[in-house]
Amino acid sequence: MLVLRSGLTRALAARTLAPQVCSSFATGPRQYDGTVYEFRTYYLKPSKMNEFLENTKKNIHLRTAHSELVGYWSVEFGGRMNKVFHIWKYDNFAHRTEVRKAVAKDKEWQQSFIPNLGLTDKQEIEITYLVPWCKLEKPAKEGVYELVSFQMKPGGPALWGDAFKRAINAHVDLGYSKLIGVFHTEYGELNRVHVLWWNESPDSRAAGRHRSHEDPRVVAAVRESVNYLVSQQNMLLIPTSFSPLK
């Protein structure tokens, strides 16, 4: 009994003195910037697009008095028709809460938006961050935009981040398209990344895409990232006259 007790004491002492090792469950580079970007997609009733946009153009200044509008587009191609897509910027979640409260109390904005509610079928919201290796860019002139949405395998950027970054940078570094921003979803479809591109026109976008498909440097980078891809879809976006991003 004494031998057993002595052995148990030594074992407990060894366990107590053993260095404490903390396991990291991080899924990628830490997001130090608290800025959040709210993606809003409105599905409109058929034939109501022009009326909706005219109402919005007339009154959008009431809404932008509360927070920053990054861009506002109509969807030309990709998925369901009669859609508008817009991005709003907030310093952090507390800022968004303050803005939403202020907007709810803004009677002039609320009254101005009532007609648009009758023109809308459905609304969707996602909350996203810019990825740590990307900053929001602004093109030097007007053009069209492409939003490409990638559904990645579970595991986060720790699993697919480096390969995805190389695929994006291959297009950017070789000048096939201008990158506006890369966004990682915080609320909405998880493991989703949105890439916003700018091109002068749909034809210049198509020409650049065809050239990139024949470039072995791009093909090699994309082939690596495809191993982590579940699905993808894209939309061609036309900026509205009141969109900050033209």
Automatic annotation (TrEMBL):
<dbReference type="InterPro" id="IPR011008">
    <property type="entry name" value="Dimeric_a/b-barrel"/>
</dbReference>
<dbReference type="InterPro" id="IPR012577">
    <property type="entry name" value="NIPSNAP"/>
</dbReference>
<dbReference type="GO" id="GO:0005739">
    <property type="term" value="C:mitochondrion"/>
</dbReference>
<dbReference type="Pfam" id="PF07978">
    <property type="entry name" value="NIPSNAP"/>
</dbReference>
<dbReference type="GO" id="GO:0000423">
    <property type="term" value="P:mitophagy"/>
</dbReference>
<dbReference type="InterPro" id="IPR051557">
    <property type="entry name" value="NipSnap_domain"/>
</dbReference>
<protein>
    <submittedName>
        <fullName>Nipsnap homolog 3A</fullName>
    </submittedName>
</protein>
<comment type="similarity">
    <text>Belongs to the NipSnap family.</text>
</comment>
<feature type="domain" description="NIPSNAP">
    <location>
        <begin position="37"/>
        <end position="135"/>
    </location>
</feature>
<feature type="domain" description="NIPSNAP">
    <location>
        <begin position="145"/>
        <end position="244"/>
    </location>
</feature>
